[in-house]
Amino acid sequence: MGQEAQVTLQSGHKLMKVGDYSGALKIYNRIIGDQPRNAEAHYHAGNALIGMGQKNAETAITAYQNAITRNQYYASAYFKKGLELSFSFGRNEEALSNVAKAISIGTGLQEPLLVQCSIVLSGFVLSRLGRDEEADFSLALFKKSSESPFKEKLRKEFVYTEDEHLSEVQEENLIKLLRMYDYLE
């Protein structure tokens, strides 16, 4: 990706951080128009679509798949695709497959924040599938992982014990956090 595209991409990220998803989407789509094979622009366009509302989930999944098609090792795209497949459409088996791919690639590329988010998501998806023992194992792995902005944000926003499940509101807040983990500071 050229330096100009990278600068343009960063301006889209700044808009994402302040919640201007529509403005960010325009920037990402402009990059896609100029560089249709730009996996990163497709990925962030998917994030902007999700930021604009649940009604855009199917289009966001397509954007994530476009990123994967252009870069088969785009671990974050597998993660976000899995997130939306599960929480927007209840397609949990397919979601789990994507999240497992994100963990595998993210571990190989040494992306600990992505791996942490993926482990948390896998726990929720496994729980939705009634595979509680595996879900508990995922949570235990996450608790043993290194510190990160994501882990710190979780610690501040969510209080839970081993025996409790998140409330509906906490789950919604967690989903929002997972959707926008790329833009944490």
What does this structure look like?
This protein is mainly α and 185 residues long. It contains ten helices and no strands. It has helices spanning 3-17, 21-34, 39-51, 57-70, 75-89, 92-108, 112-128, 132-144, 149-157, 168-179. The mean pLDDT is 89.
Fraction in beta strands = under 5%
Q: Report the C-alpha radius of gyration, rounded.
A: 16 Å
In helices, the fraction of residues equals over 70%
* SSE run: HHHHHHHHHH
Question: Can you give me a brief rundown of this structure?
Answer:
By secondary structure, the chain is mainly α.
Compile the SSE list and pairings.
Elements: H1 3-17, H2 21-34, H3 39-51, H4 57-70, H5 75-89, H6 92-108, H7 112-128, H8 132-144, H9 149-157, H10 168-179
Helix pairs in contact: 1-2, 1-3, 2-3, 3-4, 4-5, 5-6, 5-7, 6-7, 7-8
Based on the model shown, name its key terms.
185 residues, mainly alpha, Serine Threonine Protein Phosphatase 5, Tetratricopeptide repeat
